[in-house]
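Inverse folding, one chain.
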């Protein structure tokens, strides 16, 4: 999700310009943002020569992948431990609420907190002691004090909930200091940085995870189990989205502690936030676990929504009037897999509409669609009449059967995600998703930008697993472990 921490973009560069000014200039051309990195070139020609099995685009991307710097992290379990010691970086909207969930789980101790706003660290520290845990160490001495938190010898896992600009640097620092790390979405907005996180995870033997809470939604987990049981037949297509009207929040001077999220709309034209829609559908289709995504074609509408909102709601002297928005009000992307399946992704935070992640899955025996939830599968349904998804509650994942009324936000999915992650760490299990999933789910950010600039030309999605995707393996559709 998102957070309201201040952005590092106002920190000065050696030439006196702020990092915000440097990136605004770079964003106008796509230069300097790492988009033209290994495996990211335009692939219209490669896509035309690839078959449904992915033997063209898939192999071309694999050939372009950088050499391994360590063994794969696929199937690598955590070290078993009786208590998971957590450091939290970022205590705004997201981190300030997620700390409650870490404190609610047995066998988890919050050891250290970091945020440049001291009032936030004090408020969070009070929650820790109120939960009966020792007072945590506080790191509030500037934007880079997270580096000192990561150097501690008594932290097993670093949780990052800061503005997007910091995600890559914080994940990298955590791994280089021997810590497993989980990062809110998106884990990075540059393709070369995604590769660097993959390489670092393999080299340091530390897990680096995109904490995609929507993969743990009740509906998503129910559909996942039904898909794996063959209830939808052979899978053919799916769709996911982040369609959420954020205009008011992005122009609120306090909610995000500055304009950092809105400013990304001055730099990129593509899907800025694909993870919530992409992650669950990728799980349904066993992406990186027997199938993989090979290329993406994206299209974007004109960018009008934020400017119209600004004209209607912001005074003429507001700094936002200096901004020029290029981010498409709605992006629509089509992603193809090596098995020939198609995934549609959408992103729209700039126009008025009800919230929707779409969450659709279709196969040879029927289809599920969310927002509102409805299902049609044979032989259960006939005469083109939607069925009641609530009647399929027996297919709920064991996590939802065990925690039927979880605490926390987003309908309980946040708690389910944190509980399961901490459980895998305590019991020494393989995590439900890994750095390859993080890189894959986030890759549409830079690649959709490139595709839109190229008038929809397909862009290769790198094989971050370097061939490991061909082997079936477990994921979020897990078996309940023994606590012994």
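Residues assigned per position:
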């Amino acid at each position: 999700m998102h957070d309201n921490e201040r952005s590092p973009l106002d920190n000065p560069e050696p030439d006196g310009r702020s990092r915000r000014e440097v990136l605004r200039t770079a964003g106008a051309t796509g230069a300097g943002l790492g988009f033209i990195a290994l495996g990211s070139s335009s692939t219209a020609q490669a896509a035309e020569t690839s078959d449904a099995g992915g033997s063209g685009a898939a192999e071309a991307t694999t050939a372009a992948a950088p050499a391994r710097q360590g063994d794969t992290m696929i199937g690598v379990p955590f070290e078993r431990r009786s208590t998971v010691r957590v450091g939290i970086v970022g205590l705004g909207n997201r981190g300030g609420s997620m700390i409650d969930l870490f404190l609610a789980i047995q066998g988890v101790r919050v050891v250290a907190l970091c945020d440049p706003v001291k009032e936030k660290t004090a408020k969070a520290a009070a929650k820790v002691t109120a939960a009966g845990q020792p007072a945590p160490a506080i790191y509030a001495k500037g934007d880079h004090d997270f580096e000192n938190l990561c150097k501690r010898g008594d932290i097993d896992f670093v949780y990052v909930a800061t503005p997007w600009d910091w995600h890559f640097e914080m994940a990298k620092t955590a791994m280089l200091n021997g810590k497993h790390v989980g990062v809110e979405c998106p884990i990075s907005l540059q393709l070369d940085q995604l590769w660097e996180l993959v390489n670092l995870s393999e080299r340091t033997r530390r897990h680096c995870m995109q904490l995609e809470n929507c993969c743990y939604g009740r509906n998503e987990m129910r559909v996942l189990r039904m898909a794996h049981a063959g209830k939808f037949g052979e899978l053919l297509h799916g769709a996911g989205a982040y369609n959420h009207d954020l205009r008011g929040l992005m122009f609120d001077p306090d909610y995000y502690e500055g304009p950092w999220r809105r400013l990304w709309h001055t730099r990129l034209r593509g899907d800025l936030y694909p993870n919530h829609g992409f992650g669950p559908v990728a799980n349904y289709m066993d992406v990186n676990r027997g199938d993989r995504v090979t290329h993406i074609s994206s299209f974007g509408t004109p960018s009008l929504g934020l400017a119209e909102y600004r004209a209607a709601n912001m005074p003429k002297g507001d700094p936002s009037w200096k901004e020029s928005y290029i981010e498409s009000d709605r992006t629509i992307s089509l992603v193809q897999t090596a098995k020939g399946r198609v995934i549609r992704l959408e992103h729209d935070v700039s126009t008025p509409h009800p919230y929707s992640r779409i969450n659709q899955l279709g196969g040879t025996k029927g289809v599920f669609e969310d927002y509102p939830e409805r299902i049609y599968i044979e032989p259960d349904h006939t005469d083109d009449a939607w069925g009641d998804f609530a009647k399929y509650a027996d297919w709920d994942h064991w996590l939802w059967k065990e925690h039927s009324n979880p605490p926390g936000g987003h309908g309980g999915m946040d708690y389910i995600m944190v509980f399961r992650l901490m459980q895998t760490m305590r019991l020494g299990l393989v995590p439900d998703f890994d750095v390859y999933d993080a890189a894959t789910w986030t890759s549409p950010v830079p690649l959709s930008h490139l595709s839109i600039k190229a008038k929809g030309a397909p862009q290769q999605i790198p094989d971050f697993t370097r061939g490991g995707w061909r082997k079936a393996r477990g994921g979020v559709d897990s078996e309940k472990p023994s606590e012994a």
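Residues 107 and 319 are 47 Å apart (CA to CA). Residues 1-63 have pLDDT under 50 and may be disordered.
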